[in-house]
């Protein structure tokens, strides 16, 4: 459960980093085409999170209301995959009490004689990767994009590890049997020394131990629809809302928020804003900065001397009390 939550947080971080870097670092050059490209790729990032949600719930197909609007423009080219428009007709109208099972959905591709499990999130990363390699940005920015994309794939692989690696059946059966044998034999061990309180003691011990065992089974797969599962629907909604807020306005320009009358960069010159400071020469600005450093140093020395005086007075007071 906690591993799944940690991985989802890591995936959210990667999506935020990719969205921020693409929206700010990829130049638009006053071109509508660049804006469309950036927004489309960012939509795929949101689609990746939603596709991961359905993939972990083992809901096949792409015809989900919260997904098809984000990825309807991409087409599959991998061997063994049908075009996205033809893949499955399932919707996200899943019964409330449905919980995904630990089995794999495979379909057989007779043309290639391969057993293929349609991994839609992985396919989405292929399109994002193609955009990253085609976009004209500097090398550090491109490396950052690739690194965060690799983080998404890493999270997906770890999600699959949680989903496809349940507690071994033999271990689960043995643990359950040992637990019940212990609870049934516990009264015979306590009755001779405890007497009638054996009944509530055994009841409480059995309640705690069996409860812990059932909780472990309940949260083994935390990606479903149960009350105790992770709120992945809300997580996807938060990602979509954040991305929409970021892309709802153009990337911030440095001139707009640094060289502003509301920006007061010098703490010891409260009335000096960035626009007025820009009209000063370099020596005046250096002088203001050095004055700030001197004031800070003097303040630090005064505070230190005051602390020393207080400690000396406290020590003298303690000695007088002892005497």
From TrEMBL:
InterPro entries: YneE/VCCN1/2-like. Signal peptide: none annotated. Pfam families: Bestrophin_2. Residues 89-98 have a biased composition (Basic and acidic residues). One of its GO terms (cellular component) is plasma membrane. It comes from the Eukaryota. The keyword Transport applies. It is a multi-pass membrane protein. One of its GO terms (molecular function) is chloride channel activity. Residues 78-102 are annotated as: Disordered. It is found in: Cell membrane. The keyword Transport applies. Keywords: Cell membrane, Ion transport, Membrane, Transmembrane, Transmembrane helix, Transport. This is 13035_t:CDS:1. It comes from Acaulospora morrowiae.
């Amino acid at each position: 459960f906690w591993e799944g939550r940690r991985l989802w947080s890591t995936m959210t971080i990667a999506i935020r980093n990719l969205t921020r870097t693409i929206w700010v670092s990829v130049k638009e050059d006053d071109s509508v085409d660049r804006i469309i490209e950036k927004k489309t790729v960012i939509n795929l990032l949101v689609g990746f999170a939603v596709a991961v949600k359905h993939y972990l719930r083992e809901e096949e197909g792409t015809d989900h209301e919260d997904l098809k609007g984000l990825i309807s423009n991409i087409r599959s080219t991998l061997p063994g995959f049908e075009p996205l428009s033809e893949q499955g007709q399932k919707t996200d109208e899943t019964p409330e009490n449905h919980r995904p099972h630990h089995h794999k959905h495979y379909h057989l591709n007779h043309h290639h004689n391969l057993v293929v499990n349609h991994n839609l999130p992985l396919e989405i990363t292929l399109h994002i990767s193609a955009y990253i390699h085609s976009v004209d940005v500097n090398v550090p920015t491109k490396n950052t994009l690739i690194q965060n994309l690799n983080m998404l794939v890493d999270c997906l692989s770890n999600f699959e590890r949680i989903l496809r690696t349940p507690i071994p059946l033999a271990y689960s059966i043995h643990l359950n049997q040992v637990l019940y044998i212990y609870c049934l034999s516990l009264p015979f061990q306590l009755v001779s020394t405890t007497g009638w309180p054996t009944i509530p003691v055994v009841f409480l011990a059995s309640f705690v131990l069996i409860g812990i065992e059932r909780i472990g089974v309940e949260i083994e797969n935390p990606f479903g629809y149960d009350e105790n599962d992770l709120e992945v629907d809300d997580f996807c909604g938060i990602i979509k809302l954040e991305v929409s807020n970021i892309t709802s306005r153009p990337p911030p320009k440095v001139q707009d928020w640094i060289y502003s009358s509301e920006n007061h960069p010098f703490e010891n010159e409260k009335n000096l804003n960035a626009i007025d400071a820009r009209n000063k020469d370099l020596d005046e600005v250096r002088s203001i900065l050095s004055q700030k450093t001197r004031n800070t140093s003097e303040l630090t020395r005064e505070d230190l001397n005051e602390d020393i005086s207080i400690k000396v007075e406290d020590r003298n007071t303690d000695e007088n009390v002892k005497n």
